[in-house]
Write a structure and sequence with these properties.
Layout (H helix, E strand, L loop, with lengths): L1 H19 L4 H10 L2 H26 L7 H17 L4 H14 L3 H29 L8 H22 L1 H12 L4 H16 L5
Length: about 200
């Protein structure tokens, strides 16, 4: 435990050094004096509300796998946001899936599948808004082709996941015919991983 604490302290200190090494503290103090903290408090309130509802949605996606408390999921969503702000390629999504798998004893791949579902729902919802907005906002008129195309693409992806979930046996049978001649071991590992991923789609 002491080693983990020491490692966390060193990483935190290093990150603070990298963030603050080029900061002009005189300007920083002047900026902090002029901040309207009432706006900051309102912003923080809405961030916590937004995060709570994301954690609540994730809970419903995870319920078919395991009942997990909203408090634990809230913490993991916050950890994911923190990691996304520091690391590239939205690594926070992989990190929260991995931590959830470790702490709750479920497959990390199944956990990640629920996050994939989150992102698909996010994108489809955003694209629906964009398509409707393109009909009513002057700046968006005649610019709905791209969101519409993206909506069709993600809708197809959602349908594909749905079919894989409910046609699992046919999917694995076809997959085996393709992969086994190449490498039986790889085929077995990928099938095992794919099965765990499909388990995470139970919410469908």
């Amino acid at each position: 435990m002491k080693k983990k604490f020491l490692l966390g302290f060193i990483i935190s200190a290093l990150c603070l050094f990298l963030v603050l090494r080029n900061v002009d503290f005189t300007l920083l103090v002047k900026s902090l004096v002029t901040v309207r903290y009432s706006y900051l408090l309102v912003t923080l309130f809405f961030i916590f509300v937004f995060t709570f509802f994301r954690a609540l949605r994730w809970k419903y996606l995870l319920d078919p796998l395991k009942k997990i408390g909203i408090g634990n999921l809230f913490e993991l969503v916050m950890i994911g946001y923190l990691a996304n702000n520091i690391l590239p390629a939205r690594m926070g999504e992989f990190i929260r899936a991995a931590i959830l798998g470790e702490t709750e004893g479920i497959s990390k791949i199944s956990s990640f599948a629920t996050i994939v579902m989150e992102r698909i729902f996010d994108v489809i919802t955003l694209l629906i808004i964009l398509v409707f907005a393109s009909q009513y906002l002057p700046l968006m008129q005649n610019r709905y082709q791209v969101p519409l195309l993206a909506f069709i693409t993600f809708g197809f992806l959602f349908l594909l996941l749905f079919l894989v979930k409910y046609q699992k046996e046919k999917f694995f049978k076809t997959f085996s015919k393709v992969c086994e001649p190449i490498s039986p071991k790889m085929s077995h590992w990928v099938q095992k991983s794919a099965n765990s991923f499909i388990e995470g789609l139970k919410v469908l």
